[in-house]
Each structure stands twice: as C-alpha cells, then as structure tokens.
Amino acid sequence: MDRVRLLPVDRLAVPEWAKASAEVASAGLLRSMRAVPSVVATIGALAWRASRVLTATAVVLQVVSGAVTAFGLLATTQVFTALLQDSPTPQRLSASLPVLAVVVAAVAARAFLDSAVSAVEASLRPAVARSAEDAVTAAAARVSLISFEDAEFQELVRRASSDGLEAIASSVRSATQLISAVVSMTAAVVAAAVIDPRLAVVLALAAAADGWASVRASRLGRWHFLDTVTRRMTKSVVAEAATARRFAVERHALVLRERLLREHRALTADLAREETRLARRTALVRLAGRAVSGVGTAAAYGVLVLLLWTGSLPLGVAGTAVLAVRAASAALTACLRTVDLIHESAPEVELHARLLTEAARRAERRTGSTAPADPAVIRLTAVSFAYPGQHRPAVRDVDLTIRRGQVIALVGENGSGKTTLAKLITGLYPAGGGTVHWDDVDVAAADPDTVHERVAVIAQAPAEWPMTAEHAIRIGRHDKRVPDAHWHHALTASGADEVLAALPDGPDTVLSRRFHNGQDLSGGQWQRIAIARGIYRAAPILVADEPTAALDAKAEARVFAALRAAGTNRTTILVTHRLANVRTADWIVVMDRGRIVEQGTHDHLHAAEGHYHDLYETQARAYR
Ligand SMILES: Nc1ncnc2c1ncn2[C@@H]1O[C@H](COP(=O)(O)OP(=O)(O)OP(=O)(O)O)[C@@H](O)[C@H]1O
C-alpha cells in the first residue's frame, strides 16, 4: 500500500488559535485561578443581560444553600454531643431528636436547593447562549464590506460563532458549579473553623491530592490536543475531499477515491493510537492522584485522632469534623476541576468580547450625509487601495473621470486590478489613498447604504441565492410588484426568461439542492439569473464584472446589446476580457499591475499601438 500524503502533515504549522491551548497546558494552578474572575464576570454580565430574574435567583439560591450547609454541620455537632452524653441511651436519644430533626431538615433543604440551582441553570444556559449568539450574528452582519476581505477578522468571526458560543454555554455550567463548590467549601471550612480553627487546616490536607490529579489529567489532554491538532485538521480536509459535493466530479474523474480513503484510514489509525496512549497515561495519573489523596486523607484523620488523644477535641466535635472533611474534600476537588475548565475555555470565551469590540470598530458608520441619487460625474483622484493584510496595493494612483450614461470598459490582464477598481468607483470598497467623488460628495463620507442604493452589481462569481428563481432575480428590488414591463425587460435582456421557462415550477422553483424539490442550475444559467438581477435593480450605476464569461454566443450578444442600450439613464462599468465587446464602449481604461496605463476610445487606443492594441490583436488573430 502506498503511503499517500496529499498534505505534508509533519510540516504543517500549528494554527494560531490552537497555540492558546499551549499557554493553558503549561499554566500552573495560580495562573489558572487568575483567569477565573474575568470569565465569571463575562458570563455573569451575559447572564444578567439574558435574564436578570434567573441570574439573581441562581445567586440567591447558591448563598442560601451554603448557609444551610454550614448550619447543618454545626447542628450535627449538637447531635453528636447529645448522643455522647454520660446518661442512659433512651435519654440520650430523646435529647438528640430535636437537633437531629434540624439536621435532617437542613440536608433536605440542601438537596432541594441544589435541584433548584440545577433547574435555574438549565433555563439560564440556553438564554445566555441565545443572547450571545444574537450579539455575535448582529455584530458580524453589520460590519463593512471590506471586513470580509480581512482573513484574520473572518477567522475571528468563524471562531467566535462556533467555539466561542460553545465555550460560553459550557462556562455557564462551569461558573455555576464553581460558585456551588466554593459555597460548599466555605460552608464546610466556616463550620469547621467555628468548631475548632485547627480543623480548617485538616480539610485542606485531605482535598489537595485529588484536585492535583484531576488538574494533571486535564493538562495531559491538552498536550495531546496540541500534538494531534494538525493531524485532526488534515483528517477533516481529507474527509471533505473524499465526500463533499464540490470535489465530486474531479474526485471521480481523477480516480482519487481509493487514495483519499487510504489516507483517511491512515490518519484515523494514527490518531486512534495516540488516543489509546493518552488514555493509559491519564489512568496512571489518576491512580497516582488517588494514592496521594488516600495518604492525605489518612494524614487528616491522623491529625483528628491526635487532637482527640490529647483531649483537645471533644468526641462529638470530631464526628462533625469527619463529615466536614468529606464535604470540603469533595467541594475542593470540584473547585479545582472547574477552575481548570474555566481556564481552558477562557481564550474562547474572550473571543466573544473581542469580536464585539472589533465588529463595533468595523461597523458601517452612519454620517448622516447622503450620496447623490443620480451622480452626473464620478471622479477618482490619486486613488490607491491595498487589501487588508497585503503590502502591495491592488490599485495605485488612479485618476479617472466617468460621466453619467457612459459605458466604461476596464480591460487588462488577470490580477491587473479591474475588479478592485470597479469596487472603488462604486464605493463598495473604501479608497486607501486619494478620493472618490460622486458629484461633489466624497463617497467615503456618505452613508454606505445610500451609496449602495445607487449601485447594481453583476459579480464575477455571482451569489447563488438559495431561494425561488423569481426571488433570486427580484431580491435587489423586492419592494416592486412583478410582473411589469421592467421585469420582462430584465428577463429577456439577460436570457433568464429561457431559464425560468425550463424550470419544473417556473419562477417558483427553489434554487437549492438542499431541499427535496430544489433545483441546481448550470454555470451559464446562474449567470443569466445574476444579469437579470442586475438589470432589474435599475440602479443608476451598474457594474458588470465578466458578465458573459459563462454565456453562449447568442446570449452574450443579447446581454451586450442590452448593456449598450441603457442610454443616458445608467452609467455602466464593464469588466471583461472579451475585447470584441468593448469596441463600442464610450471609454476604455487599460490596467496593468494596479495602474491605468492607457485610456481612450477603441479607435484611439488601437491606433496608439500600445498595450490595448497588443491585447486586442492577440484575440483578433485567433478569430481571423
Ligand atoms: N480578497 C483579496 N485579498 C487579497 N488580495 C486580493 C484579493 N482580491 C484580489 N486580490 C489581489 O489584488 C490584485 C487585483 O485583483 P483584481 O481581482 O482586482 O484583478 P482583476 O484585474 O479583476 O483580475 P481578473 O481578470 O483575474 O479577474 C491581484 O493581485 C489579486 O491577487
């Protein structure tokens, strides 16, 4: 069997987000504890916002529960003291009965309060999750368009909406458990200290070892996660390549299925071996923890016996001490575990606040200034633009004037900056340097919605809107009633009329294969729908970015005729490599490596025998 490696697993770098786990894995208990207040505060604030009543109820129940526990323990001392009196048994029993009833009532109350806390937490968790999810979705939806080009921000959105929300939901439980454990422990320690302060020391001894073992085991789990994270990611990439629809045709045609399966199996076996190794090491650590804990508990009881022996602790009090030791031990172990869990989820919980802050910074600002409804002149002055995280500008030092009603063609080689320039002209992307004016309004200072209202875009890779065919066309003007003359024009000019006629339910056909009666379209059919959507939007500025790349010759001719026929009502920015179609454009702008290298009419540029002439002649030769 060949050892298939489509990805160089051993050389893949651990992603940035996973590195936070290394920090958690190497942290000591004190560092873990320092992470707790901020997580508990974040969760508390989210809970308070989600439901004040439930949050307040949870806190009150926890405090009452602690008070009842302490009270119960103190009352137990009375029971023991009554039982251990120097008198006949029936008398001792009857003397202890009233306090015994109090102890039983305290135990019952504690059980009831614990259930109530669980019930409140069960209602609070989904409420917090819902409110956090709503905040994340709203924040991510309201950012400016350019934010979607920023890979780091996109990664933050992705992680805050998956890992972040999960961590918040689980931290609600951890925070409740931590508070519960702290309250129980405080109750036991307070009760012990009231009886005899030396007992408080005894309690700490007994609980420490078990807590150490549980923290150590979870550290092992985290190192294991770091060791295997790139292999897990590779496995999921391979699984996707082996099963996802978007790879299906090439997967079959390239006869890749068995290779992918073999790689998937090899990775799965490798990870399974690591899991087994981890399970073995964890079991050993837990065993060691139990052993040390046993010694700790023995030491605690030893101290108790010593106190009894020396007569410095009455027998009745010692009985209560045993109960307090057990309660505190369980509470301290739970406490350490939850501290560890909270520290572990801290980086993910923190994503929530980070996303909200970052999204607020990137939110489309409202300036109150309105873009002109139908600009007569669009003027770019020394415009430059670099994509987020890129040093090299995609567009540099562009000066350009466009007049209403013109068809402007942007031409040039792949990557020369045509699409980017079209987005700058239409105010979809903000200029990094220089200015874009629509009449006398600086587009950067106008409310983005008022700018977008004036623009229709036929994108290079149009969105395949998963809705009915009719709505996929109407979506840019859903306030208008169809059918009207404009609707028919959009359908016939784009050739979408033929697409609708061929669909099983016509315009009502759902364009998504996720639904049983849904339908997918061919590339050219999707493009016709996108062109119809662009024309139907009837905006004063239309950007058509490679609108006919997937169209047949007849449909292409129809579309270009329609774009040219828009007349003085519409300014059209046409990005295309089909130079035969730009001959009739009013103005041709030739781009090379982000700069405008030539501009003019076809005749003028062709006669100049420069860059445009070369591009044009190369294509024309192929037809001659
Ligand atoms: N989202 C992005 N992030 C980073 N760089 C980008 C992004 N989109 C485009 N670029 C870069 O910006 C430059 C201009 O790209 P643009 O898409 O404007 O070119 P184009 O002329 O429209 O190309 P094509 O003819 O291939 O469509 C290219 O170097 C490209 O690699």
Automatic annotation (TrEMBL):
One of its GO terms (cellular component) is plasma membrane. It is found in: Cell membrane. InterPro entries: AAA+_ATPase, ABC1_TM_dom, ABC1_TM_sf, ABC_transporter-like_ATP-bd, ABC_transporter-like_CS, P-loop_NTPase, Type_1_exporter. Keywords: ATP-binding, Membrane, Nucleotide-binding, Transmembrane, Transmembrane helix. Residues 56-344 form the ABC transmembrane type-1 domain. It holds the Pfam family ABC_tran. Residues 378-618 form the ABC transporter domain. It is a multi-pass membrane protein. One of its GO terms (molecular function) is ATP hydrolysis activity. Its main location: membrane. The chain crosses the membrane at residues 53-75, 95-113, 287-309. Coiled coil: none annotated. PANTHER family: ATP-BINDING CASSETTE SUB-FAMILY B MEMBER 10, MITOCHONDRIAL, ATP-DEPENDENT PERMEASE MDL1, MITOCHONDRIAL. This is ATP-binding cassette subfamily B protein. It comes from Labedaea rhizosphaerae.
